[in-house]
Amino acid sequence: MTRILLSDKLDNCVERWRSAGMTVIGPVQGESISRYAVVENGAGFDFGMILPDRSVKELFFPQTEPMLRYTIKKSEIDTADFPPPQEKRIIFGARACDASGLAIDDSLFGWDYKDDFWFHRRNESVIVTIACTKADDFCMCTSLDLAPDSTKGCDVLLRPLENNRGWQVEEITDRGREAFAVIADLLQESSDQAAPTAVVTEKFNLDACVTWLQNPENFDSKFWKEISMRCIGCASCTYLCPTCHCFDIQDEGDTYSGIRRKNWDSCSFALFTMHTSGHNPRSTQSARWRQRIMHKFNYFPGKFSVNSCSGCGRCSRQCPVDMGITETLQEISKLQS
Amino acid sequence: MTENIQNTQPNIYKPAITKIVARHDEAPGVRTLKLEFQNPADQEEFKKTFRTGMFGLYGVYGEGESTFCVASPETRKDYIECTFRQSGRVTSALANADIGDLITFRGPYGNRFPIEEFYGKNLLFISGGIALPPTRSVIWSCLDQREKFGKVTIVYGARTVADLVYKHELEEWQQREDVELVLTVDPGGESPDWKHKVGFVPTVLEEAAPSPDNCIAVICGPPIMIKFTLISLKKLGFDEKNVYTTLENRMKCGVGKCGRCNVGSIYVCKEGPVFTAAEVSRMPAADL
Amino acid sequence: MITQEKYRTTVKELLASDSVKMVIGYKPGSTPDRRRPLFIRSSDDADQLVLDSTCITNLSGYLVAEGLLSDEKRVGIFLRPEGIRSINILAAEYQLNMDQIVIFGFDSTGREVRPLEGRHSKDFSALLSDIKENSPQISKEPLLESIERMNEQERFDFWQEEFSRCIKCYACRQACPMCYCRRCIVDSNQPQWVNTSSHTLGNFEWNVVRAFHLSGRCVQCGNCDRACPVNIPLRLINQRMAEMVLEGFDHFAGLSPTQEPVLASFKKDDTETFIL
């Protein structure tokens, strides 16, 4: 016997959480794209998709976010904080890859200096992951030591029932238990079986790839040029990525008042590393693609003991020229073997 | 797990306000600003944390922030001096700021030159063009406690005589008996009355041939100068572990988040900007 | 299939005889319905080439990337009629020398692919003129028609809603053969012409600025529209701009490599009373 939540109780759950002061967010299929968005009742969720087009990252690290407001007076400058939103949120129906992505970036945003814009939202959000029962050709979590039912970064894990009438409930953290205490009486004991999780075939040999990437000789390999020849240098892979965290800081306003913002930025862009002198350490697209792969699978794990990739596959799924991490690592696997 | 995240700090991107108390033109397009904190708490914090080699983000609201080293030494912490070339949006705004104007400062960030480890050793400073400021911070940090160090040699070069920065201090070092100063300008950059060397820094360095024995070298300059100077130092017999340099990658946040200063496994803003040549040689050269 | 085989043979010959140093074409992608750009330098690799109706991407932008043509050697490229128009514009704007370009033209109806006769841009001028003549008769997308029926406010709201999804990844710009500027206006910050932030105003500014820069230059290859990861119907803007340029100036972008850019040339008999 396990505790289950029936789909027809969702309306009640949403209502309970909302009256407990929480904003309820879930996967929503819009007219043009799908994303994690606010839902007002059970009918607002769309659980049918493999995963939303846009990752959950944007709820914690928005594409543009005000950090402070400045006012310049005659002999004085006022800087006012722009605190991150104070709302409590429950993200119901996150994918395991998205939730893992958040846990991965915690290490970066909490490294010595703690970024409150990130952590405030993290502390105020409950992540309820629904294990995947289907996957597409681009899913690759299993190649990264993760799984369709990973609990990394999640507070509650739900497993869809085989009979499709709801989910088995596994509370993972205290924060998850607290959020589900609000709906405790809507749960029930049941012997319904969970549906098998999606079969995500292993796309590449990660260990072999890491070995290859760590070998300094391969840094200058002609492989980088070949694999990235068709890269057009846009940022769609980095912006859709649940773990890419780079940003720019920009002022908007005039000499008297304005706002300083944190905006997504990308290692794909030539300007990203360009010095004022005109010297650019990464002046070619192949150097920039190498940096992205090296950073995710060599540098980041070297520093934070975790790969900066959770295997969602969005980079390959959305690439205008059909590139992506999967193809690159598949090719590297071949080179190493 | 998410529940372990505690102790969030206040806005780490919020700068302190400083007032320009003096400014000085060093060379065409190169200016030094002397700054004082407006808030005593910021001043105290700076005094507690600043060590030579660290950098800051200097800003003008409405234009943005720009990264450069703190050019003043750790032995003089009542103020900050910074020297920059006017070239971009922010440096233009900084250059246009007048005495009495307020500008922002975030920092000091990054690591430092471990000068206690240099006690009792000879020091060789090598610098090119607009990269004298970081070296100058170390130079004064050492000269202000001169008795703790052995022989001090400074090799400094610029494209032309006009491009030499801190001319008044070069004069002062020239006068001092406890400092050996070797000045050079690139061929063609000399003026009719130029009495010093003509030639590129690595060449002039090899001619001066300082002994590597018990000597620490500190080099700052444009990437190309650093590259060739490291080769020259190797020829002279310097051990990579005794050679220090600074990397000045493009930065935005200064606190290891925004990702752009990443080179190899290093975030220059947090683990740098000061590295030994041994550390630099382990980084992917092509990305420097 | 026949077209593909024929072209593979030609590509092999040209590479083997060093008549071209590289051929840019298509190869299978990560799923059966995807094709990805392919760069062939050796005749041995010509068998990787595929050519079918799913070869949609306009490859002409690669010609002007990272100095490919700077050695003055010839490059072969697979192009649909829109692609040929793109390289005509690139030549007209002095971005490439047409004598370096060997064209493998193709078009498709339904699933069937057919070759276009010719190797040099000038071989296709009759074909392009026909396309121009027929273009007013091509029926509009229903969505574009419905936008045209909207009043100003509704239209503004429609685009505001669409642009709200923009994340400024610049996939539209990077995928566009016409966006070859070394430094895009959005990357210029002295002065900051365009807001870099991806909020409503910044998104509006970016997309409108791009539309203006493309008017009279866009060939509607659809690269931007397909590249957009948030599915903004960018093709509609470009279609409308192209229509206006055709109506107002009888200008059909990319007819020939010597065609004058419509918004950068002046005619004495222009009916307008001002010059911008």
Oligomeric grouping of the chains: heterotrimer
- The CATH superfamily of the largest domain in chain B is Nucleotide-binding domain of ferredoxin-NADP reductase (FNR) module
- Second CATH tier, the architecture of the largest domain in chain B: 3-Layer(aba) Sandwich
What does the radius of gyration of chain B come to?
19 Å
- Trace the largest sheet of chain B across and list its strands: 10-9-8-7-11-12-15
Question: How would you summarize the topology of this molecule?
Answer:
The complex is a heterotrimer of chains A (337), B (288) and C (276).
Chain A: E1 2-6, H1 10-19, E2 22-29, E3 34-38, E4 64-73, E5 76-81, E6 88-94, H2 96-109, H3 116-123, E7 125-130, E8 156-160, E9 166-171, H4 174-181, E10 188-190, H5 206-214, H6 223-228, H7 236-240, E11 247-253, E12 257-264, H8 285-304, H9 314-318, H10 325-336
Parallel strand pairs in A: 2-6, 6-7, 7-8
Antiparallel strand pairs in A: 1-9, 1-10, 2-3, 4-5, 4-12, 8-9, 11-12
Helix pairs in contact in A: 5-10
Chain B: E1 16-27, E2 30-37, H1 40-49, E3 55-60, E4 64-69, E5 80-85, H2 89-96, E6 102-109, E7 122-128, H3 132-143, E8 152-158, H4 167-175, E9 180-185, E10 197-198, H5 201-208, E11 215-220, H6 223-235, E12 243-246, E13 262-263, E14 266-267, H7 268-271, E15 274-276, H8 277-281
Parallel strand pairs in B: 7-8, 7-11, 8-9, 9-10, 11-12
Antiparallel strand pairs in B: 1-2, 1-6, 2-5, 3-4, 3-6, 12-15, 13-14
Helix pairs in contact in B: 5-6
Chain C: H1 2-16, E1 22-28, E2 35-40, E3 75-79, H2 81-92, E4 101-109, E5 112-115, H3 125-134, H4 142-149, H5 152-163, H6 171-175, H7 200-214, H8 223-227, H9 234-249
Parallel strand pairs in C: 1-3, 3-4
Antiparallel strand pairs in C: 1-2, 4-5
Q: Can you describe what's shown?
A:
- The complex is a heterotrimer of chains A (337), B (288) and C (276).
- Chain A is an alpha+beta fold and 337 residues long.
- In chain A, 29% of the residues lie in helices and 23% in strands.
- Chain A has helices at 10-19, 96-109, 116-123, 174-181, 206-214, 223-228, 236-240, 285-304, 314-318, 325-336; strands spanning 2-6, 22-29, 34-38, 64-73, 76-81, 88-94, 125-130, 156-160, 166-171, 188-190, 247-253, 257-264.
- In chain A, the strands form 2 sheets. An 8-stranded mixed β-sheet of chain A has the order 3-2-6-7-8-9-1-10. A 4-stranded antiparallel β-sheet of chain A has the order 5-4-12-11, with no helix packed on it.
- In chain A, strand 4 and strand 5 (76-81) form a beta hairpin.
- Chain A starts with a strand and ends with a helix.
- The model of chain A has no long low-confidence stretch (mean pLDDT 95).
- In chain B, helix 5 packs parallel to helix 6 (223-235).
- The relative contact order of chain B is 0.13.
- Chain B has 2 domains: 10-109, Translation factors (Elongation Factor Tu (Ef-tu), domain 3, Beta Barrel); 115-246, Rossmann fold (3-Layer(aba) Sandwich), CATH 3.40.50.80.
- By secondary structure, chain B is of the alpha/beta class.
- Chain B has helices at residues 40-49, 89-96, 132-143, 167-175, 201-208, 223-235, 268-271, 277-281, and strands at residues 16-27, 30-37, 55-60, 64-69, 80-85, 102-109, 122-128, 152-158, 180-185, 197-198, 215-220, 243-246, 262-263, 266-267, 274-276.
- Chain B is globular.
- Chain C folds into 2 domains: 2-125, no CATH class; 137-264, no CATH class.
- Helix content of chain C is 36%, strand content 11%.
- Chain C has helices at 2-16, 81-92, 125-134, 142-149, 152-163, 171-175, 200-214, 223-227, 234-249, and strands spanning 22-28, 35-40, 75-79, 101-109, 112-115.
- A 5-stranded mixed β-sheet of chain C has the order 2-1-3-4-5.
- The mean pLDDT of chain C is 92.
- Chains in contact: A-B, A-C, B-C.
- The interface between A and B is large, with 69 and 50 residues.
